[in-house]
UniProtKB/TrEMBL annotation:
Biological classification of the source: Bacteria, Bacillati, Actinomycetota, Actinomycetes, Pseudonocardiales
Region (Disordered): 1-25
Transmembrane portions of the chain: none
The protein's role, per its UniProt record: Catalyzes the activation of phenylacetic acid (PA) to phenylacetyl-CoA (PA-CoA).
EC number from the UniProt entry: 6.2.1.30
Residue span(s) of domain AMP-dependent ligase C-terminal: 345-436
Domain AMP-dependent synthetase/ligase: 90-298
Name listed for the protein in its UniProt record: Phenylacetate-coenzyme A ligase
This protein's UniProt keywords: Ligase, Nucleotide-binding
Subunit: Monomer.
InterPro entries, A to Z: Adenylate-forming_Reductase, AMP-bd_C_sf, AMP-dep_Lig_C, AMP-dep_synth/lig_dom, ANL_N_sf, PA_CoA_ligase
Pathway this chain belongs to: Aromatic compound metabolism; phenylacetate degradation
Family: Belongs to the phenylacetyl-CoA ligase family.
Organism from which the protein derives: Saccharomonospora piscinae
GO MF entries: nucleotide binding; phenylacetate-CoA ligase activity
Length: 437
């Protein structure tokens, strides 16, 4: 903006300061305790299910400590289904500013509601996340997360606007046009799933453009699991810094946790708004920091739909904060407990295959895991595209199969297919294709 405009319009908002992001650990602890009690009281007064559960646990909403949460049962996807569509909402319908719904790939959709304050909180946390990733006021942000019921597009959009960025609301799809827009409008930041970014990078090449020469310098990537190998591949090809962003519709949407550009060492969970626990996925027992398990989140500021101890199904580990010392970090999500493939008794996640494929010369990062059944025995075929122009690939299938056997512990078939033959992502990619009857 020119200096003249700033002088004329005194209503021009300045990028919001965010003191809570920089609280010291004691300050954060006090704030969190206050918000936890407010949330318990709000849930108790307004959501029948929670009133029952809080009574059964003998909890006093106004005196509870974080450790007392362990006395409450988890809130599960099943609870959301049983109260579909709005039975867990804590405010009357007319106070809702917006509704989103999760994709429902593993069952019926889940509807989530937001008051106007919830939207403001979400925007502020997304603004904080974009800034932590290295974006700032004045940057142009290309949002290629889907717009609509999915929280990715609108969540990123409002956050980028709140930070003072120029937003290109590209949404997912129409890949050739997206590349054209990036080349012409020269955004610095892109927000997109890692697999759709791969699709975009291939399209750059198809259009005779080198993605490394593009204006993009920061990628804020999430909504699906990805590995360090994928980060290296994307950073090398796209010439940008790729940072991980995490979130889920039930809890808010993107912006629950964000990796900081200065340390790039896992994702800081914004603990002034979310209380995380790690639990044993089988027994439900609360585990300590540093232990691997399932992430459980209690919202601390949600008005429309507070959730107590929501089981995310996402597997990770909590660690002390670094770039934002008061907020703990979580490791990259290795997978969801319900995405886990169990093949002949061995548990595995698609990210384990991604690591092996990205570490193998001559292969592209485009792959699928196809489950089939022969003679009542489950089979897994890794279908992976050769890298464009790669040659001498004859030994590769055996090499990959051997690495899978030694690192994951199962025997699989490996099928190396021609470039450009597997389905491409336009958002969240479906990695596992289950053809078992
Ligand atoms: O995927 C919200 C989102 C949008 C996050 C854009 C980040 C960026 P849902 O559709 O409800 O919401 O899916 C949530 O996606 O429980 C994880 O299993 C997975 N997921 C989200 N972010 C990551 C990530 C959005 N960074 C589910 N790494 C979550 C791994 C992720 N998995």
């Amino acid at each position: 903006m020119s200096r003249r405009e700033e002088g004329v319009f005194d209503t021009v908002p300045k990028p919001a300061l965010d003191p809570e992001e920089h609280l010291d650990p004691d300050g954060l602890r006090d704030l969190r305790l206050r918000r936890l009690r407010q949330t318990l009281r709000h849930a108790y007064d307004n959501v029948g299910l929670y009133r029952r559960r809080i009574d059964e646990a003998g909890l006093d909403p106004d005196r509870a400590e974080p450790a007392d949460l362990a006395r409450l049962p988890f809130t599960t996807k099943q609870d959301l289904r049983e109260h579909y569509p709005t039975g867990l909402f804590a405010v009357p319908r007319e106070r809702l500013a917006r509704i989103h719904a999760s994709s429902g790939t593993t069952g019926s959709p889940t509807v989530v509601g937001y008051t106007a304050d919830d939207i403001r909180t979400w925007s502020a946390l997304m603004a904080r996340s974009i800034r932590a990733a290295g974006g700032g006021p004045g940057d142009t942000v290309h949002v290629a997360y889907g717009y609509g019921l999915f929280t990715g597009g609108l969540g990123a959009h409002y956050g980028a606007e709140a930070l003072g960025c120029t937003v290109i609301p590209a949404s997912g799809g129409m890949t050739a046009r997206q590349v054209r827009l990036i080349a012409d409008l020269r955004p610095e930041v892109i927000m997109v799933t890692p697999t759709y970014l791969l699709t975009l990078l291939d399209e750059f090449t198809r259009q005779g453009l080198d993605p490394a020469e593009s204006s993009l310098r920061v990628g804020i990537l999430g909504a699906e699991p990805w590995t360090e190998g994928m980060r290296e591949e994307i950073e090398r090809r796209a010439g940008l810094r790729a940072l991980d962003i995490y979130g889920l519709s039930e809890i808010m949407g993107p912006g629950v946790a964000q990796e900081c550009a200065d340390t790039k060492d896992g994702l800081h969970i914004w603990e002034d708004h979310f209380y995380p626990e790690i639990v044993d996925p089988v027994t439900g027992e609360v585990l300590g920091d540093g232990e691997h398990g399932e992430l459980v989140i209690t919202t601390l500021t949600r008005q429309a739909m507070p959730l107590l101890r929501y089981r995310t199904r996402d597997l990770t580990t909590l660690r002390p904060g670094t770039a934002r010392p008061a907020h703990r970090r979580m490791d990259r999500i290795t997978g969801r407990s319900d995405d886990m493939i169990i093949l002949r008794g061995v548990n595995m996640f698609p990210t384990q295959f991604e690591r092996i494929i990205l570490g193998t010369e001559g292969l592209s990062p485009h792959f699928q895991l196809v489950l089939s059944s022969r003679d009542r025995l489950d089979q897994l075929t890794v279908r992976v595209e050769a890298a464009p122009g790669a040659s001498g690939l004859d030994p590769v299938p055996a090499l990959v199969a051997e690495r899978v056997r030694s690192e994951i512990g199962v025997t699989v078939a490996v099928d190396v297919v021609e470039p450009e033959t597997l389905e491409r992502s336009v958002g969240k990619l479906r990695r596992v294709i289950d053809q078992r009857g």
